[in-house]
Amino acid sequence: LAQVENRESDYTQRNTMEQVPTLECCDAVTGDTKRLSQSIAIIEFLDEIFPGRPALYPIDSFDRAATREMVELVNSGIQPLQNRRVIQDLEA
Protein backbone atom coordinates (compact mmCIF):
# COMPACT_ATOMS: atom_id res chain seq x y z
CA LEU A 1 0.00 0.00 0.00
CA ALA A 2 2.82 2.41 0.75
CA GLN A 3 3.96 2.00 -2.84
CA VAL A 4 0.38 2.54 -4.06
CA GLU A 5 0.34 -0.77 -5.98
CA ASN A 6 -3.44 -0.82 -5.64
CA ARG A 7 -3.58 2.09 -8.12
CA GLU A 8 -1.74 0.25 -10.89
CA SER A 9 -3.77 -0.79 -13.93
CA ASP A 10 -3.44 -4.52 -13.22
CA TYR A 11 -5.06 -4.11 -9.80
CA THR A 12 -7.55 -1.48 -10.96
CA GLN A 13 -8.92 -4.00 -13.47
CA ARG A 14 -9.67 -6.32 -10.54
CA ASN A 15 -11.03 -3.61 -8.26
CA THR A 16 -12.11 -0.34 -9.85
CA MET A 17 -12.35 1.26 -6.40
CA GLU A 18 -8.63 0.52 -5.94
CA GLN A 19 -9.26 -0.77 -2.43
CA VAL A 20 -7.47 -3.52 -0.53
CA PRO A 21 -8.18 -6.36 0.05
CA THR A 22 -9.71 -8.03 -2.98
CA LEU A 23 -10.55 -11.73 -3.00
CA GLU A 24 -10.75 -13.48 -6.35
CA CYS A 25 -12.36 -16.88 -6.66
CA CYS A 26 -13.71 -19.09 -9.40
CA ASP A 27 -17.45 -19.84 -9.53
CA ALA A 28 -17.70 -23.64 -9.35
CA VAL A 29 -20.74 -23.71 -11.65
CA THR A 30 -19.91 -21.15 -14.35
CA GLY A 31 -16.13 -20.96 -14.07
CA ASP A 32 -16.39 -17.17 -13.95
CA THR A 33 -14.01 -15.16 -11.78
CA LYS A 34 -15.84 -13.44 -8.94
CA ARG A 35 -14.43 -10.72 -6.69
CA LEU A 36 -15.17 -9.31 -3.26
CA SER A 37 -13.42 -6.23 -1.98
CA GLN A 38 -14.39 -5.55 1.61
CA SER A 39 -12.83 -7.38 4.57
CA ILE A 40 -16.10 -8.20 6.31
CA ALA A 41 -17.75 -9.48 3.13
CA ILE A 42 -14.68 -11.64 2.48
CA ILE A 43 -14.62 -13.04 6.04
CA GLU A 44 -18.34 -13.89 5.98
CA PHE A 45 -18.03 -15.45 2.51
CA LEU A 46 -15.13 -17.65 3.62
CA ASP A 47 -17.02 -18.67 6.78
CA GLU A 48 -19.99 -19.72 4.63
CA ILE A 49 -18.15 -21.64 1.91
CA PHE A 50 -15.87 -23.51 4.34
CA PRO A 51 -18.33 -24.54 7.08
CA GLY A 52 -16.24 -27.48 8.29
CA ARG A 53 -13.20 -25.32 9.01
CA PRO A 54 -12.56 -23.35 12.18
CA ALA A 55 -14.86 -20.34 12.06
CA LEU A 56 -13.43 -16.88 11.50
CA TYR A 57 -16.24 -15.42 13.61
CA PRO A 58 -17.19 -16.81 17.03
CA ILE A 59 -19.90 -19.49 17.05
CA ASP A 60 -21.88 -17.96 19.93
CA SER A 61 -24.51 -15.44 18.72
CA PHE A 62 -23.68 -12.80 21.33
CA ASP A 63 -19.94 -13.14 20.71
CA ARG A 64 -20.54 -12.80 16.96
CA ALA A 65 -22.54 -9.63 17.56
CA ALA A 66 -19.82 -8.26 19.86
CA THR A 67 -17.26 -8.98 17.15
CA ARG A 68 -19.36 -7.11 14.58
CA GLU A 69 -19.63 -4.24 17.06
CA MET A 70 -15.81 -4.01 17.21
CA VAL A 71 -15.60 -4.28 13.42
CA GLU A 72 -17.98 -1.35 13.03
CA LEU A 73 -15.87 0.68 15.45
CA VAL A 74 -12.89 0.21 13.15
CA ASN A 75 -14.88 0.63 9.91
CA SER A 76 -16.70 3.76 10.98
CA GLY A 77 -14.44 5.30 13.59
CA ILE A 78 -10.79 4.46 13.14
CA GLN A 79 -10.27 3.40 9.52
CA PRO A 80 -11.52 6.59 7.84
CA LEU A 81 -8.81 8.52 9.66
CA GLN A 82 -6.12 6.22 8.27
CA ASN A 83 -7.56 5.96 4.78
CA ARG A 84 -5.16 7.41 2.22
CA ARG A 85 -8.02 8.58 -0.03
CA VAL A 86 -9.65 10.49 2.85
CA ILE A 87 -6.35 12.05 3.85
CA GLN A 88 -5.66 13.16 0.26
CA ASP A 89 -9.14 14.70 -0.02
CA LEU A 90 -8.62 16.62 3.23
CA GLU A 91 -5.23 17.90 2.08
CA ALA A 92 -6.59 19.08 -1.28
Q: What do you see in this structure?
A:
The protein is mostly helical and 92 residues long. The chain is built from four helices and two strands, in the order αββααα. It has helices at residues 9-14, 39-49, 61-82, 84-91; strands at residues 23-26, 33-36. It has a two-stranded antiparallel ribbon. A hairpin with a 6-residue loop joins β1 (23-26) and β2 (33-36). The longest helix has 22 residues, at 61-82. The chain is flat. The chain starts with 8 loop residues before the first helix and ends with a helix. The mean pLDDT is 80.
End-to-end C-alpha gap: 20 Å
Rg computed from alpha carbons, rounded to a whole number of angstroms: 16 Å
> Outline, from the CA principal axes?
flat
Uncertain parts? none
Q: What structural class do helix, strand and pairing data support?
A: mainly alpha
Largest sheet: 2 strands, antiparallel
Number of helices: 4
Strand order of the largest sheet: 1-2
The percentage helix is: 40-55%
Q: What's the number of extended β-strand segments? A: 2
Compute the average pLDDT.
80
- Give the SSE string: HEEHHH
Work out the strand percent: 5-15%
Write the layout of secondary structure elements.
Elements: H1 9-14, E1 23-26, E2 33-36, H2 39-49, H3 61-82, H4 84-91
Antiparallel strand pairs: 1-2
Overview features:
mainly alpha, 4 helices, 2 strands, flat, 92 residues, 9% strand, two-stranded antiparallel ribbon
In brief, what are we looking at here?
With about 90 residues, the chain is mainly alpha-helical. Helix content is about 50%, strand content about 10%.
